[in-house]
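Continuing the batch. This is chain 6 of the set; chains 1 through 5 are on the previous pages. Same settings as before, nothing changed between runs. Recording input and output for traceability.
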Amino acid sequence: MLGQFNVRGSKAFNDIVQGQKINSAKLIVEVPQRQIHSDIQYATGNDNITFQVLNMQEYEKLGIPKMKFPALCEIDYNLTTKGYEVISVKYIKELPN
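Output for chain 6:
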């Protein structure tokens, strides 16, 4: 799926914690409450959700560390049983705080 989103920020981690390798990267995306909570009778405003990026290498390959946030981005993604998974990100413009 393809959509334009206000991306609030990102986070990534690639290291070993207590003997376990962790390689994780995410975009923090602002979405209307109605879009993610369609079963709630009254949902107003926005909520932040995470879109999972495959790993730190993909995060860097997509150019995410160079983006200035908050930003308007076009995100190609899949919705899976694990949540939202990023395929590609196109930076459109920086947004005011």
